[in-house]
Amino acid sequence: MHDDDWDTGSPGVMRLPSGRLVLGRSLRGPLPDGPPPEFAVYLLGRPPGPVDWDSRWVRWPDFRLPTDRDDLHDALYEAWVRAGRQRVEIACSGGRGRTGTALACLAVLDGVPADEAVGFVREHYDRRAVETPWQRRFVLGFGTAPH
To answer: Is-above-0.90 flag for pTM?
Structure first.
């Protein structure tokens, strides 16, 4: 990790088993105090506005699933790699359903078994993360499907 990483005491900061830190958040709220992200993945039904850091948009309508599973996998893999050396944020409008689902998928990429990933995110990020049954099933499938 690097010297100006996310503050582990800030709301929304989740530590993966590898030690990587990722910020999950609602885009309705402000960024936490401190340095901004260096890379972000935005999970929205329409493109987000411009930001001053590298970012990727994954089309993902609210309460649904991503429209392109491979695009999500690629974006999350890039986020996982970058989180080893940069401040990475994962965000959607509300910060729980889509963000929680993506964080659970990120945990799978980091080695958490798919059937434990939702529990991991609920324990380490937000107890109400991953809001729908199909989002939970998506996490299970993320761990087994080829990309």
So the answer is: yes
